[in-house]
Amino acid sequence: MKLLIADDDTLFRMLLRQTLASDYELEIVDNGDAASSALQRDDAPQLAILDWIMPGLSGPQVCRNVRSRCKSPGPYLLLFIARNNVAEMIAGLQAGADDYVTKPFNPEELRARVHVGRRIVELQSSLESQIAATRNALTANELLQKTVLPCNLCQLPQADPEFLRRVRSLLQALPEDSPKPDPLGVQPSTHSAD
Protein backbone atom coordinates (compact mmCIF):
# COMPACT_ATOMS: atom_id res chain seq x y z
CA MET A 1 0.00 0.00 0.00
CA LYS A 2 1.24 3.50 -0.84
CA LEU A 3 2.16 5.81 2.04
CA LEU A 4 2.93 9.50 1.61
CA ILE A 5 5.40 11.12 3.99
CA ALA A 6 5.48 14.92 4.03
CA ASP A 7 8.13 16.46 6.27
CA ASP A 8 10.69 19.19 5.59
CA ASP A 9 13.21 17.81 8.11
CA THR A 10 15.74 15.59 6.32
CA LEU A 11 16.55 13.61 9.48
CA PHE A 12 12.88 12.84 10.18
CA ARG A 13 12.32 11.80 6.56
CA MET A 14 15.26 9.40 6.89
CA LEU A 15 13.94 8.00 10.20
CA LEU A 16 10.45 7.58 8.74
CA ARG A 17 11.88 5.79 5.70
CA GLN A 18 13.85 3.39 7.93
CA THR A 19 10.79 2.73 10.09
CA LEU A 20 8.23 2.17 7.33
CA ALA A 21 9.96 1.23 4.06
CA SER A 22 9.77 -2.53 4.66
CA ASP A 23 5.95 -2.49 4.94
CA TYR A 24 4.84 0.29 2.57
CA GLU A 25 5.51 1.76 -0.84
CA LEU A 26 6.76 5.20 0.21
CA GLU A 27 6.35 8.52 -1.57
CA ILE A 28 8.30 11.22 0.23
CA VAL A 29 7.92 14.98 -0.21
CA ASP A 30 9.36 17.92 1.71
CA ASN A 31 6.53 20.48 1.60
CA GLY A 32 2.79 20.83 2.04
CA ASP A 33 2.05 21.90 -1.55
CA ALA A 34 3.62 18.70 -2.92
CA ALA A 35 1.73 16.65 -0.31
CA SER A 36 -1.59 18.24 -1.25
CA SER A 37 -0.94 17.62 -4.95
CA ALA A 38 0.04 13.99 -4.35
CA LEU A 39 -3.14 13.37 -2.34
CA GLN A 40 -5.35 14.82 -5.12
CA ARG A 41 -4.08 12.48 -7.87
CA ASP A 42 -6.16 9.57 -9.16
CA ASP A 43 -3.45 7.18 -7.92
CA ALA A 44 -3.05 9.03 -4.60
CA PRO A 45 -1.56 7.19 -1.63
CA GLN A 46 -4.26 5.93 0.74
CA LEU A 47 -2.14 6.67 3.82
CA ALA A 48 -0.28 9.88 4.64
CA ILE A 49 1.90 11.18 7.45
CA LEU A 50 2.02 14.98 7.48
CA ASP A 51 4.24 17.28 9.50
CA TRP A 52 2.44 20.14 11.20
CA ILE A 53 4.81 22.89 10.01
CA MET A 54 6.48 22.69 6.61
CA PRO A 55 7.04 24.99 3.63
CA GLY A 56 3.92 25.80 1.61
CA LEU A 57 0.76 24.40 3.15
CA SER A 58 0.87 23.27 6.76
CA GLY A 59 -0.23 19.76 7.76
CA PRO A 60 -3.68 20.95 8.91
CA GLN A 61 -4.13 22.96 5.68
CA VAL A 62 -3.34 19.82 3.65
CA CYS A 63 -5.91 17.91 5.72
CA ARG A 64 -8.58 20.57 5.05
CA ASN A 65 -7.78 20.64 1.31
CA VAL A 66 -7.97 16.86 1.00
CA ARG A 67 -11.21 16.57 2.99
CA SER A 68 -12.89 19.38 1.04
CA ARG A 69 -12.13 17.69 -2.30
CA CYS A 70 -12.70 14.02 -1.47
CA LYS A 71 -16.00 12.44 -2.45
CA SER A 72 -15.35 9.21 -0.58
CA PRO A 73 -13.65 8.84 2.81
CA GLY A 74 -10.33 9.60 1.12
CA PRO A 75 -6.88 8.82 2.47
CA TYR A 76 -6.12 8.09 6.11
CA LEU A 77 -4.21 11.12 7.41
CA LEU A 78 -1.80 11.08 10.37
CA LEU A 79 -0.50 14.41 11.60
CA PHE A 80 2.71 15.00 13.55
CA ILE A 81 2.16 17.24 16.58
CA ALA A 82 4.44 18.61 19.28
CA ARG A 83 4.66 16.34 22.33
CA ASN A 84 1.88 16.98 24.89
CA ASN A 85 0.27 19.74 22.82
CA VAL A 86 -3.45 19.09 23.29
CA ALA A 87 -4.42 22.24 21.38
CA GLU A 88 -2.54 21.01 18.27
CA MET A 89 -4.08 17.56 18.62
CA ILE A 90 -7.62 18.99 18.70
CA ALA A 91 -6.95 21.47 15.89
CA GLY A 92 -5.41 18.73 13.73
CA LEU A 93 -8.34 16.35 14.21
CA GLN A 94 -10.80 19.17 13.51
CA ALA A 95 -8.88 19.97 10.30
CA GLY A 96 -9.54 16.42 9.06
CA ALA A 97 -6.67 14.31 10.37
CA ASP A 98 -7.68 10.77 11.33
CA ASP A 99 -4.98 10.37 13.96
CA TYR A 100 -1.84 12.02 15.26
CA VAL A 101 1.67 11.07 16.32
CA THR A 102 3.85 13.09 18.65
CA LYS A 103 7.30 14.26 17.62
CA PRO A 104 9.81 12.88 18.38
CA PHE A 105 8.06 9.60 17.62
CA ASN A 106 8.38 6.10 18.97
CA PRO A 107 8.95 3.76 15.98
CA GLU A 108 6.73 0.97 17.37
CA GLU A 109 3.88 3.38 18.13
CA LEU A 110 4.17 4.90 14.66
CA ARG A 111 4.09 1.47 12.99
CA ALA A 112 1.05 0.52 15.07
CA ARG A 113 -0.85 3.71 14.22
CA VAL A 114 -0.04 3.42 10.50
CA HIS A 115 -1.14 -0.23 10.63
CA VAL A 116 -4.49 0.84 12.11
CA GLY A 117 -4.85 3.31 9.24
CA ARG A 118 -4.06 0.59 6.72
CA ARG A 119 -6.67 -1.70 8.28
CA ILE A 120 -9.31 1.05 8.11
CA VAL A 121 -8.49 1.84 4.47
CA GLU A 122 -8.72 -1.85 3.56
CA LEU A 123 -12.05 -2.22 5.40
CA GLN A 124 -13.46 0.85 3.62
CA SER A 125 -12.39 -0.55 0.27
CA SER A 126 -13.94 -3.94 1.03
CA LEU A 127 -17.16 -2.29 2.18
CA GLU A 128 -17.37 -0.17 -1.00
CA SER A 129 -16.93 -3.33 -3.12
CA GLN A 130 -19.61 -5.16 -1.17
CA ILE A 131 -22.03 -2.23 -1.52
CA ALA A 132 -21.46 -2.12 -5.29
CA ALA A 133 -22.00 -5.89 -5.60
CA THR A 134 -25.19 -5.66 -3.52
CA ARG A 135 -26.53 -2.83 -5.69
CA ASN A 136 -25.81 -4.85 -8.84
CA ALA A 137 -27.51 -7.92 -7.37
CA LEU A 138 -30.58 -5.91 -6.35
CA THR A 139 -30.84 -4.34 -9.81
CA ALA A 140 -30.51 -7.73 -11.46
CA ASN A 141 -33.11 -9.20 -9.11
CA GLU A 142 -35.59 -6.42 -9.93
CA LEU A 143 -35.02 -6.95 -13.64
CA LEU A 144 -35.48 -10.70 -13.28
CA GLN A 145 -38.71 -10.23 -11.37
CA LYS A 146 -40.05 -8.01 -14.13
CA THR A 147 -39.09 -10.68 -16.68
CA VAL A 148 -40.64 -13.63 -14.86
CA LEU A 149 -43.63 -12.05 -13.18
CA PRO A 150 -46.56 -11.48 -15.51
CA CYS A 151 -47.56 -8.07 -16.76
CA ASN A 152 -50.53 -6.66 -14.83
CA LEU A 153 -52.46 -5.98 -18.04
CA CYS A 154 -51.79 -8.99 -20.29
CA GLN A 155 -50.61 -11.58 -17.72
CA LEU A 156 -47.68 -12.54 -20.02
CA PRO A 157 -44.00 -12.49 -18.93
CA GLN A 158 -42.24 -9.25 -19.73
CA ALA A 159 -39.76 -10.80 -22.16
CA ASP A 160 -38.63 -7.76 -24.15
CA PRO A 161 -35.29 -8.66 -25.89
CA GLU A 162 -33.55 -5.43 -24.75
CA PHE A 163 -34.75 -6.04 -21.22
CA LEU A 164 -33.38 -9.60 -21.27
CA ARG A 165 -30.04 -8.37 -22.66
CA ARG A 166 -29.73 -5.95 -19.72
CA VAL A 167 -30.54 -8.72 -17.23
CA ARG A 168 -27.87 -11.00 -18.74
CA SER A 169 -25.21 -8.26 -18.65
CA LEU A 170 -25.99 -7.45 -15.01
CA LEU A 171 -25.79 -11.11 -14.04
CA GLN A 172 -22.46 -11.50 -15.84
CA ALA A 173 -21.11 -8.45 -13.99
CA LEU A 174 -21.70 -10.06 -10.59
CA PRO A 175 -18.57 -11.41 -8.88
CA GLU A 176 -18.12 -15.18 -9.04
CA ASP A 177 -18.69 -15.67 -5.31
CA SER A 178 -21.73 -13.41 -4.96
CA PRO A 179 -25.14 -15.00 -4.51
CA LYS A 180 -27.11 -15.04 -7.74
CA PRO A 181 -30.59 -13.53 -7.43
CA ASP A 182 -33.57 -15.85 -7.67
CA PRO A 183 -36.24 -14.64 -10.14
CA LEU A 184 -38.86 -14.71 -7.41
CA GLY A 185 -36.64 -13.12 -4.79
CA VAL A 186 -36.23 -16.36 -2.80
CA GLN A 187 -32.76 -17.50 -1.83
CA PRO A 188 -32.13 -21.27 -1.79
CA SER A 189 -31.88 -22.82 1.66
CA THR A 190 -28.38 -23.32 3.00
CA HIS A 191 -29.53 -25.91 5.59
CA SER A 192 -29.17 -29.62 4.95
CA ALA A 193 -32.16 -31.92 5.05
CA ASP A 194 -30.82 -34.02 7.95
Structure description:
The protein is of the alpha/beta class and 194 residues long. The radius of gyration is 24 Å and the shape is elongated. 26% of the residues are buried. The chain has helices at 10-20, 32-40, 59-69, 86-95, 107-148, 161-173; strands at 2-6, 25-29, 47-50, 76-82, 99-103. Strands 2-1-3-4-5 form a five-stranded parallel beta sheet, sandwiched between helices. The chain contains six helices and five strands. It folds into two domains: 2-105, Rossmann fold (3-Layer(aba) Sandwich); 129-173.
Termini separation comes to 47 Å
Shape: elongated
Query: What share of residues is helical?
Result: 40-55%
Proportion of residues in β-strands: 5-15%
CATH class category name of the largest domain: Alpha Beta
Strand arrangement in the largest pleated sheet: 2-1-3-4-5
CATH topology of the largest domain: Rossmann fold
CATH architecture grouping of the largest domain: 3-Layer(aba) Sandwich
Structural class: alpha/beta
How many domains? The number is 2
Unreliable residue runs: 183-194
Number of helices: 6
